[in-house]
# Entry
Amino acid sequence: MARIYLFNKPYGVLTQFTDAEGRAVLADYIDVPGIYPAGRLDKDSEGLLLLTDDGRLQQRISDPRFKLAKTYRAQVEGIPGEEALEMLRRGVDLKDGRTRPAKAALIDEPADLWPRDPPIRYRASIPDSWVELTITEGRNRQVRRMTAAVGLPTLRLIRYAIGPWTLGTLLPGEMRQLDNAEVEKLTTSSM
# Structure
């Protein structure tokens, strides 16, 4: 049976196990041989990363052809109006083409939010807010580019969910292995 781990990737950590430049990597937090990330998360993004030893499952999770939903919580500069949210819901024109429609909603600051190190810049003259976005593709820095395209630059980005998996109560740097019943249920479902 496949091994699947949920990991809360801290800010500033590369989604790889080694780095010739000595930057923070997964190996600084994870000491489990034979598992690999299913997908990527930018160095300056935080949150849910899945790791597995099953190559087919790894591809199914990370390949945009399977349209596995990924939910992000983005702290943005400004407060989105309904027009900006609707643009995100319809899809946004980026340099590499139009995005698929997304689910987008203005949300309260997440109650289970941990402090970020370093903290985001604070500017008293510019309000910020939180947006939850669910996308089904994974272009490079896509959520950041989408929010910027509608006039809401992202200050902090946390991936909260991938398909049926969520961060739950994992804090940055923490990892949890799914038990056999969870793996069986999830790998036999339609994802």
